[in-house]
């Protein structure tokens, strides 16, 4: 048995960095916080790689040949009821280790890149402190030993994202984008919380080990009472998925992601492309046995939401001009594919192909999407704009960025033998087994992906030079090294025999490329690329013609199908004006009015009452005599009857 | 002599010291020394208490001391604490300590100000340590009266109106409480023997059901007024808005907790059958309060009003949790009181400091303060994040304990109430981030603000002490939760005896 308790340092290092840099960072030169953060991440990266090696290759497997689930650390944090308690710890299993590698690798590269990118920014130190906070929270999320720990770090990830999106806090758009991101995900987290409450109530535990144990309490407990035709278990899983959908920007909770691009570009690469936004996928994967075995309806919801989000976002991505927003919609689309893959998957062995494919795609996507964002950052750094129309002909000025960007585009378009090809192929194969219709939807998404990525590529690097303020030039080595490193990842990550490591039941199995799926997929990708080449290789009027030919549809896609407007209507118009404002009025005028009314009546009564105490003898005598007369009359009347 | 008597003696000595001091500086330093000693005693009380429990002393209340001071009616000065009161004492000491530093800038009549402030604190401490209903009530009144002077003299805006409104509403509540206490007194010995105000002894008796049903609404509403229970909360926005900084801190941070504590310790503990039968009415009010306060806060423009409505929402959650009648939820209720106490004190301290610099509390007139006063702004963001229940701060622990506890009640009524209350976490995020966005971020709207100073040393002490409190509980809640949990045993047993179907 190997002792893995040192893995806690992977969490403690960034926490320490956050506290120290956050409190004392301004005592030093800014660059110190950058170097400290980067070297901390380097240590964590090495630790993660060592852990992965020890876990996959040294540690003996369980009796049935599957990878073990290990509690490396587990400390009691809070007692709730007799059965329920929250622990803090580190859970090691194939997917958590895979996530450790993804997060530390990308985070390390982003730290290194940021030293160059954020150079001279005010708040350099604040940036690195928050980045450390994010790394801590994200790692805490993936190694969570119980669902409540996950929720805790889930919220912390949310707040780090809030702080980083709002990094340029004097810019109003950044402030409102950060607010929007936080509130939308908070709303989704409400669902997550309710789901946790329901799930833990019926299963009697928060613990992932017993929740996902196929002979454990969650599996053996009855499905609970039915509500609207679905069991409590199904409802709880749907609610939990709502949390995941919020973080992973699934339709209709996706509206915060494009706006989140207001943050610095390295942040977009780390948080809004490679790590945090896939937390929802990870959540579903974490609870996958329950979804697959106890709540298939909830899993169908995952499938449909994923599939719809992927095509929805892909269509919008074709119409946007801000390069970061194109990438944001592309991220949403790719995550939709991951969700779709989970949704079509079954549990165990080859049935669980979709699960494996989803994790595989998560892994490869982290590399090429982070690369795309970092390259976009280098481009923005060079031309000081993130609108496509301000770019063109940059391949001569930025050769390294150009080469790495091209690799990433080919990878995401699914061209063999780059990383995206392998993972996407598995997703399509898994989809093909479950639903032919959705398989074709994903096929179209593949084509659209290739199309919009190369639209982006050609608009940036080909065509005519624009009027640049100064000749664009390649950035310093701290920025180009991460690009090259990630490009290697995007080239080679697909060659990993992923199914030997990650599978739904942690049992290694063989998967292979099915030519019947792979060839059409590649052809669709190539078709997308060719189309983009025709449209955008040189400046033509074809795109505009197509845009106009599609009429209302393309305008709606350009306006992101008016989802933002719908939300604005609900929040600003209805909640602000028709709920909150009347409540404020009601409180001041009705509730408080009643209180003031009581005071007024009391006052008035005493005003009237005090007239009786006039001190005038005549008045007293008058009252006395009339009282006597009245009483006499009354008694006589009563007596005679 | 029991350590608890210190909590009365130290403030009284401090007041005497203040009255004897020669100048402003001396007044402040006497107050600081006194309240630091008080804080130290509170911390040592926590350690002593935990040590006693660890040593296996499982008595219901510890550090007991008992004097008779009015034989005829059998009124005692009877003190003793369990885990819940120890936690509340810790809260009070921390808030008062921070409050002294937050009122460092008081210029008018500092001697009288600090005297009233510490008298108020004395009342609160006395309330938390006493186990004799009458003496408790006495201290309760002692805490409410100085409030009138503090707001009426040192307040701002329509201060006379606010002071009068607050005092009258709280006095109305007091009348209800007094009636309830006297009612309990006359039924305190249903099986013969001398009548008593002794809370522990009454809790062993069984007051007849019809009496309970009659008295419970009086006590619950009476304490509920102070706990800002909907619809008796309207003193709170006006009162807070007019009160000087330290008074808002103490009032929202501690005094409002007397309400929740009273509901828990007196109304529910002594009248469990009635609580069980009538609880649902108040549960509806509390649930409305949670969401109503939060929605009301969205629309406000005055910082203090925002925080007052937010307090209504958070304090309603306390009553909500108490009325769930199970160990977990009640634990959450006490933690929520502590958490909200520190948090809201922090908010009011910061609002006071910002107001002292900008001379406005209207968020629309401010903006971009992050650039001008980074320390205060960052502290405000922290307070806001704590308020919206971010993990790592105390609010999260309290809210989650409440929601998990509340969810243990299986019937639809409680489930629906829980989900409605839980949805407040979204609304809270909306109003907190709205304020942070308008007030602190963005561009500086008023160029006069560009030269404003950041926090001074005394501001920093106050703010850091409070932030330390919420973070300590938020990061390591186990000791507090276990300490409170031990104190909840008797009340939960009584509730289970009253309604065997309730879940432990």
Per-chain topology:
The complex is a heterodimer of chains A (641) and B (504).
Chain A: H1 8-24, H2 30-58, E1 70-79, E2 85-92, H3 94-117, H4 124-142, H5 147-165, H6 172-203, H7 208-211, H8 217-220, E3 226-227, E4 230-231, H9 232-247, H10 256-259, H11 265-274, H12 279-286, H13 288-294, H14 296-317, H15 323-344, H16 353-383, H17 399-413, H18 419-434, H19 436-461, H20 477-492, H21 515-536, H22 542-550, H23 552-558, H24 563-610, H25 617-640
Antiparallel strand pairs in A: 1-2, 3-4
Helix pairs in contact in A: 1-2, 1-4, 2-3, 2-4, 3-4, 3-11, 3-16, 3-20, 4-5, 5-6, 6-9, 9-12, 9-14, 11-15, 11-16, 13-14, 14-15, 14-19, 15-16, 15-18, 15-19, 16-17, 16-18, 16-20, 17-19, 17-20, 18-19, 18-21, 19-21
Chain B: H1 6-20, H2 24-54, E1 62-70, E2 75-81, H3 83-102, H4 110-129, H5 133-154, H6 159-186, H7 199-204, H8 209-226, H9 235-242, H10 245-270, H11 272-298, H12 303-322, H13 327-358, H14 369-372, H15 374-387, H16 394-406, H17 412-422, H18 424-440, H19 457-475, H20 478-498
Antiparallel strand pairs in B: 1-2
